[in-house]
Design goal:
The complex is a heterodimer of chains A (303) and B (351). Chain A contains twelve helices and four strands; from the N terminus they run H-E-E-H-E-E-H-H-H-H-H-H-H-H-H-H. Chain A has 303 residues and is mostly helical. In chain A, helix 2 packs across helix 12 and helix 7 crosses helix 9. Helices cover 24% and strands 35% of the residues of chain B. The chains are: A mainly alpha (303), B alpha+beta (351).
């Protein structure tokens, strides 16, 4: 490389950094900055009135799994916390599974419509986004509560004598989250299926695959990126869900999101809340890593 | 027919759409295709050739009629229960599988033992000369190589019949010529019945044992390439396969009388006389024999030249003669010539 070329290259590298500076600044301020504050707060001591005292302490992180006995000060494993974690992970996995089970046929249906109709169907899928999440969640509440629409109708036609008790249960939270996050599953699945070459179905059938085998050996592996994207888009916000468990799960069926909120509110334990937030972040990252590794392994044995 | 029959289509009708809007893609088509034959369905787009192929494969169900494979009625069977495989026009290779996995797919789905799948895959890779590409993804292959994978994949399960849906149309001319030879070789080596769909008449003539010329959902003529070329049954076949001069004639006891009054001996019957451009001979005028004509235009094609002629009553004719070498016969616009026909070249067909 000639000196002239070298200097030109240096200049273009410098210009590149200069040009991306606004984006990098924004990224730091908007993403990394707040995260750093949360990280710092998780190592401080809670104050009396919900503030923090600038004393370094691991109590926030320890508090994730252990509680200090009020009387003798011993540390015990916090069963209640574990229950909340387990419920969050379980409900998020179930939500992901249900949205996939409902979303896949939906996305397939839309992708196989004539092109002129697809826009209309996609538009219908996005309509729920027009309404505030809180309002939609209260609407579900109105449907499934003991004196709500579902129970009134079912008792009215004599199908049940006692109302089905759904509200304030894990099932209610599960149904609510599946409803709220379904579009997030449908859209990436649609994008993947839309790119799928339908001729491959015929090729599969032609080569002696049954319908199920075509689904398993042809469709699924090819639309896998869409399945991964949809699952991540549903699983991640489910894990941190706040509104849905609050409105449909009542006070008892908390998920991590509600538990974190509690620490910043009545709990007056900001460091614990901050530590929980960081823990949630780590769980999500771990889940993503596992998922992405598992999903790329099968598809590319030689890569 | 004494030969074994691989495929029989009996009075097959395929209509798309409902009621009055229904379009008959196939209109009462019957054909027997012999085992081991290289059979071509030839016709312009929309003639029903691909529909017939898809009915044999099982992708479409006939509106009426039956499809038999090796004598067994498969009309109601889905594609995965028919002993035929298809080479698709777009190849339809599985993008998530390697070349070897693509080729082994059919055998794997049939539940054959792993060792057999591996052995057959290796054998097929060698057959289509892709041994070195076994572990590549299909997207890393050239068009010609993808074509070979599609062929190997369809041949691997040893189907009774191989269906080829315009497989060469996406290739450039040189590669297409190579693949034509390759296909013929594969067919001879495997002994499998090939049903080949194409709109390219030259491809059909060079490769086929027999050709079915289709138009408007019907088979117009079935025969060996030579029969079809030399003895077309109607105007459609005559004009679709090669170039033809059509001359209106009236039948007389002496032969067919042209509108110019000249009488020509011709086989067949009908009111149209056909003669291929290469069967015309152009000589110096005024020696008695031949039709008097005037050269209206000369087009140079390299191997030969097309001489456009007009007869005394302005009927137009085209003659195809070898390119003139230096000092050889050349023609100029306005030149007067005498047109003679090769013996047996003129035929009569019905309109």
């Amino acid at each position: 490389m000639s000196p002239a070329e070298q200097s030109q290259r240096k200049r273009s590298t410098r210009n590149g950094w200069l040009l991306s500076a606004p984006a990098l600044t924004l990224l730091f301020l908007a993403a990394s900055g707040p995260l750093l504050i949360v990280l710092v707060y998780s190592f401080l001591t809670p104050g009396q009135y919900g503030n923090v005292i600038w004393d370094f302490s691991f109590d926030g992180w320890i508090g994730i799994l252990y509680t200090r006995d009020i009387f003798d000060g011993t540390m015990n494993l916090a069963d209640a916390h574990l229950t909340i974690f387990w419920r969050s992970v379980k409900l998020s996995l179930m939500t992901t599974a249900l949205t996939f089970a409902l979303g896949f046929p939906t996305a397939w249906f839309i992708a196989t419509r004539p092109p002129a109709q697809r826009a209309m169907w996609l538009f219908l899928i996005t309509i729920p986004f027009w309404t505030n999440l809180l309002i939609r969640t209260f609407a579900i509440n109105e449907v499934i509560r003991n004196e709500g629409l579902m129970n009134t109708v079912l008792t009215g036609i004599g199908l049940i004598s006692e109302p089905i008790r759904l509200i304030n249960t894990d099932t209610a939270v599960f149904i609510g989250m599946a409803y709220v996050y379904l579009p997030l599953m449908v859209l990436p699945l649609f994008a993947a299926i839309d790119r799928f070459d339908m001729k491959l179905l015929e090729a599969g059938y032609d080569l002696y695959a049954s319908r199920l085998q075509v689904l398993r050996h042809v469709i699924m592996p090819i639309v896998k990126p869409g399945i991964v994207a949809g699952s991540i888009l549903v699983f991640v916000p489910s894990l941190g869900a706040y509104v849905t468990p609050r409105v449909l799960g009542g006070g008892k069926n908390m998920m991590i999101g509600n538990f974190i909120e509690l620490q910043f509110g009545q709990g007056r334990n900001w460091p614990l809340g901050a530590a929980l937030s960081m823990a949630l972040l780590l769980i999500v990252m771990a889940a993503l890593l596992v998922y992405v590794r598992a999903s790329t392994k099968g598809s590319n044995p030689h890569g | 027919m004494t030969q074994k029959v691989a495929i029989t289509a009996q009075n097959v009708v395929k209509a798309f759409g409902q009621g009055a809007a229904a379009v008959r893609a196939l209109d009462d088509v019957s054909v027997d295709i012999a085992t081991g034959e290289f059979f071509t369905l030839l016709g312009p787009s929309g003639c029903g050739k691909t529909t017939l192929l898809r009915l044999i494969a099982g992708f479409e169900m006939p509106t009426a009629g039956k499809i038999l494979i090796d004598g067994a009625d498969v009309t109601d069977k889905p594609p995965n229960r028919r002993p035929v495989n298809t080479v698709f026009q777009s190849y339809a290779l599985f993008p998530h599988l390697t070349v070897a996995e693509n080729i082994g797919f059919g055998l794997k789905m049939q539940g054959r033992p792993k060792a057999e799948v591996a052995a057959t895959t290796t054998e097929m890779l060698a057959l289509v000369k892709l041994d070195a590409m076994a572990d590549r993804k299909t997207s890393q292959l050239s068009g010609g190589q993808q074509q070979r994978v599609a062929l190997a994949r369809a041949l691997a399960p040893r189907p009774k019949v191989l269906l080829l849906d315009e497989p060469l149309s996406a290739l450039d001319l040189k590669l297409r010529k190579e693949m034509q030879v390759e296909l013929k070789r594969l067919q001879t080596e495997t002994g499998i019945t090939f049903i080949f769909v194409t709109h390219d008449q030259e491809e059909a003539l060079t490769m086929s044992d027999r050709i079915a010329v289709m138009s408007a959902g019907r088979i117009q003529q079935i025969g060996a390439p030579r029969d079809i070329y030399t003895r077309p049954v109607n105007r459609f076949v005559a004009s679709f396969i090669g170039e033809t001069n059509f001359l209106p004639v009236t039948a007389t006891p002496q032969g067919a009388r042209l509108s110019t009054g000249d009488v020509i001996a011709a086989e067949g019957e009908g009111s149209v006389l056909i003669v291929r451009p290469e069967q015309l001979r152009l000589g110096p005028p005024g020696l008695g024999a031949g039709l008097a004509a005037k050269v209206t235009n000369v087009v140079y094609f390299g191997t030969d030249i097309h001489v456009n002629l007009s007869l005394a009553d302005d009927t137009l004719l085209t003659a195809r003669v070898p390119s003139p070498v230096d000092g050889g016969a050349d023609f100029a616009t306005g030149q007067a010539v005498a047109v003679t026909f090769q013996p047996g070249a003129a035929r009569l067909i019905r309109e």
